[in-house]
What does this fold into?
Amino acid sequence: DAKTTQPPSMDCAEGRAANLPCNHSTISGNEYVYWYRQIHSQGPQYIIHGLKNNETNEMASLIITEDRKSSTLILPHATLRDTAVYYCIVRVRFRSNYQLIWGAGTKLIIKP
Amino acid sequence: EAQVTQNPRYLITVTGKKLTVTCSQNMNHEYMSWYRQDPGLGLRQIYYSMNVEVTDKGDVPEGYKVSRKEKRNFPLILESPSPNQTSLYFCASSLSGTSGVSSYNEQFFGPGTRLTVL
It folds into this structure.
């Protein structure tokens, strides 16, 4: 079962910051939060991940609340090419490995 | 160019006719995985492989087989396909599958194989 809850869809104006929320209230202490996106039906693309601290890379920023029950992905200057489905994912322990638990994602539409 | 390739990209077949979807990566990754994606849903893991000759079931392994004889290849085999295996399939690879408690490596995904079983 998915461990994350996201709004099914969001709009954002081109050039503005896109803030995508994610709820993961049942997350455990050592479970990471990952974000991927999928453009049309292409292979998903990794964006960013984090555990407790806020993270930033060339694509986005990840803000994780202190209680770790929710997080926000920020695309600082959204472009039309950022239109995609964004998945907030929790990495869980699975047998001798780890597994990403995918939810249904948020369809983000960037409007001109 | 570093990439994960899948073949075929599109396949229409009939119930019971064995098929193989190939997956190959050129990044010398140890970890490879197969997922299926159904409409409106996220990805569900079918099988994964930690390294050559090491494979294990994911969440939805029924009706599928895999093999990992070489590091770069991880074919998905449907011995007797059924209509409920109609789906979009993705292969993925990463440098390794485990790093202890620390970060999990970024997974690189192939372009997908859209399979229809009639």
